[in-house]
Amino acid sequence: MTLHSPARRVAPTLEAVAAEAGVSRSTVSRVVNGSEHVRPDVVTAVTAAIERLNYVPNRAARSLANRQTMAIALVVPEDTTRFFGDPFFSEIVQGITQGLEDSDYVLNLQLASPSAPSEKTIRYLLGGNVDGAIVVSHHSGDDFFTTLDATIPVVFGGRPFHPEAHENSFVDVDNRAGGALGTQYLIDLGRRRIATIAGPENMQAPIDRHQGWIDAVTAAGLPTDLVVHGDFTLASGAAAMRELLDRSGEIDGLFVASDLMATGAISVLRERGIRVPEDVAVVGFDNSSAATSGSIGITTVHQPSREMGVEMARMMLAMLRGEHPERERVMPTRLVVRDSA
Amino acid sequence: MTLHSPARRVAPTLEAVAAEAGVSRSTVSRVVNGSEHVRPDVVTAVTAAIERLNYVPNRAARSLANRQTMAIALVVPEDTTRFFGDPFFSEIVQGITQGLEDSDYVLNLQLASPSAPSEKTIRYLLGGNVDGAIVVSHHSGDDFFTTLDATIPVVFGGRPFHPEAHENSFVDVDNRAGGALGTQYLIDLGRRRIATIAGPENMQAPIDRHQGWIDAVTAAGLPTDLVVHGDFTLASGAAAMRELLDRSGEIDGLFVASDLMATGAISVLRERGIRVPEDVAVVGFDNSSAATSGSIGITTVHQPSREMGVEMARMMLAMLRGEHPERERVMPTRLVVRDSA
DNA sequence: CTGAAAGCGCTTACAG
DNA sequence: CTGAAAGCGCTTACAG
Question: Which CATH architecture is the domain A71-172+305-329 placed in?
Fold first, then answer.
C-alpha cells in the first residue's frame, strides 16, 4: 500500500461466492435476495461463504438486471444556505431518513437551484439513477419537478405551486387554517393592529399562511394592509420587521410565516426597545428549534415536520412497492403557546 | 396517465439512438463520451438523434461496464441536528458542491451515526455505489472511515483522529496555531483570567484548538484550569458558560472552539448582566455565519470553510483521475476582529 | 474512423 | 429446490 494510492481490494462477485459455496450463481442470488425456495442447509452454506468472502452485491449490476436502483433522490430546490439555515429542513430530513431506515433504500441529496434545476440535476433524475424523488420545496414556474412523475414516482413536501396543473402526491399541513389559527390567537389576546411577515410569494405554503392571516383579520374587521414579505431567512425577518416598524409604529400583534423569520423580527423589536409580548405579541410558524433557541420562547403554529418527513418516506415506499397510497396527506397544525404571545 | 400511477416513459437506449442515426452502438458511445476519433458529420448526426430521442445514458449500465459510478459519497458522521444546526457544515458543503460543479460527479449524502457507521452505510460505501468518499467529520474510535481508503479514495475534512495510524488524505487548518492566535489576542488585550469552552474530546480539531489555548495561556504565565467542554452545539455553549461562571466569577476573557458555541455563551453572559466585551472579551472560531447573525458581532478565528470544501472536492477529483495530489492540505487561519473582543 | 463482439455482475424466467 | 442461459445497457479492446 503506497502512500498516495493504497492498493484497492477487488470486490468478490456472486460467481466467487457460488464457487466458494459449491452452488450456482442463481442460488446465491436467491439467498442474497431472501427467496423462500432454497433449502435451509444451502442457505446456511451460502451465507457462510458470503461471510467468508465479505461479499457485497454490486449495485450497478443489480440495478441493470432488475431495473431498480434502490436509491431515492432528496431534491432540495433551495440555496444551500437556506437549506442548512432553517431547522425546518433539518426536521423534515430527519423524518425522511427515519422513514427509510428499515428499507433498503438510500437517500441521494440533490441540491438544486430554486429557480430552474440544472442540466446535471435533470440528467441525474431522468437517467435512471434513482427509483423515486422526494422534493422538499417547490417554487412557481418550475414545471420540471411537477412533471417528473411521468418518469419516476415523486412525493412533494408541501403542496406544489400549481396543484391543479398536475396530480402530484404531497404531504402538507393546512397552512391557511394554520395561519388563521395563529392570527386568531392574537385577536383573542385583544390585539388590534396585527401585522404579518409573510413568506415568499412563489411558494404555496406561505401564500396559504398569508391567506389564513387575511381570513382571520378580515373576520375580525381589522386592517389587512400590514404586510411585508420575507424569504424565510432570519435576516429577511429582521429586515421585514424594520420595514413594518418604519411604516407604522402602531403594531401590537405580529404573525410571522416561519419561526426563523420570527427570531429575526424579535431581535429587531428588542433592539428598538419594543417589548415582546407586552408591546407586540408575536406568533410564529413551524415550531422548529428556532422557536426555542432564542432569547424568548416563541408562541407558534406547530407543524409536525418530522412526522411529515416520515409520511413522505412512507408514501414513497408504498409507491415503489407498486401500491397506490393516498395522493395527498394533510396533517394537523396546532398552537403552541410560549412567551412571545 | 391514471391518477395514482402515471404511465412511466421507457427510456431510449444506445441501441435506439444508433438505429435512429444509422450507426453502430460503438459510435454512439464514442460520441456520448466525447471521443476524438469520430468524423464530425457523424458526431452531428448522432447528436441530433440523441436530441430527438431525448436520450440519457443509463448510469447503471455505464457503471457496470466501466466500473465507475460517477458518484461521490458525502459522509457526515454527525447527528442530523448538529449537521444542520452548524453553519460550518453548510459552508463546507457549499464548497464541495462548488468544487464538483464542473465535473460529472454527483454527491450522495450519507448521514452516519457519530459513533459507528450503520451496516447500511458500510454496505453502501463498500458496495461499489460510489467512486470515492468525502468524510466531513471524524471521531475517535471510528476505524471504518480511516481504513475505507483501502477500497475507495477518501478525503477527510479535518485531520482524522488518529492520523498516525493510517495515511489518510485531508484538508484542514492549523487548529493549534488558530487556538493560540485567538487566545493571544485576548492576552494582548490585557485579559488575565482567560477561560476556554473547548469542543468534544473525541475529535482532533477541538483538541488542537484547546492545545493552542494552553500554549498561549501558558506562555503568558496564566492559569490553564478554566476549561469546560461543549459538543459544538449552541446549547452546549450556553451550558458550558453557566458552568464556567458558577465555578469562577473572575473570568475576563473567553476563547470558544466554535462560533455557534460562542453564540450560546454570549447569550448566557448577557442574561447574567455581564457585558461583552467590557467584562468578558469573547473570541470564537470558524468565522461562520453564526459569528455575524447574533446580537453582537463575534471576534473569531477565521477558517476558510468554503475553500476547504472546494479543496476537498479538488483533491478527490484528482485522486479519481488517478493523480497523486498532496496528502494533506493545511490552510491558513486568521483573526477577524468584530465587537465581542 | 467505424463496427462486431465480448464482457461488466447481477436477476429471472425456463426447465428439470 | 436448483442450474444453465439469456438479458439488462453500456464500454472497449480488437479488427479492419
Answer: 3-Layer(aba) Sandwich (3.40)
Fold match between A71-172+305-329 and A175-304?
yes
How many angstroms is C1' of D4 away from CA of B110?
A: 39
Beta-carbon separation of A60 and B69 below 8 A:
yes
For residue B302, give the nearest of B290, B293, B313 by alpha carbon. B290
Beta-bridge mates of residue A334: A302
CA-CA-CA-CA torsion for A238, A240, A241, A245, nearest 10 degrees? 140
Confidence of residue A3 (pLDDT cuts 50, 70, 90): very low
Cis peptide before A277 (omega within 30 of 0): yes
3-state secondary structure A228-269: EECCCCHHHHHHHHHHHHHHCCCCCEEEECCHHHHHHHHHHH
> Which chain A positions have a beta carbon within 8 Å of B9's beta carbon?
150-151
Q: Which pLDDT tens digit goes with each residue over B266-293?
A: 999 988 999 999 999 999 999 998 898 7
| Domain spanning A14-57, CATH architecture | Orthogonal Bundle (1.10)
Sign of dihedral through CA atoms A206, A209, A214, A217?
A: negative
pLDDT in tens, A263-312: 999 999 988 999 999 999 999 999 998 898 777 999 999 999 999 999 99
Domain B175-304 = CATH 3.40.50.2300? yes
Q: How confident is the model at residue B51 (pLDDT cuts 50, 70, 90)?
A: very high
Q: Which residues contact A324 (CB under 8 A, 6 or more apart)?
A: A318, B4, B5
Q: What is the pLDDT of residue B35?
A: 87
* Segments making up each domain of chain B, as ranges: 14-57, 71-172+305-329, 175-304
Q: Is the Cβ of A295 closer than 8 Å to some Cβ of chain B?
A: yes
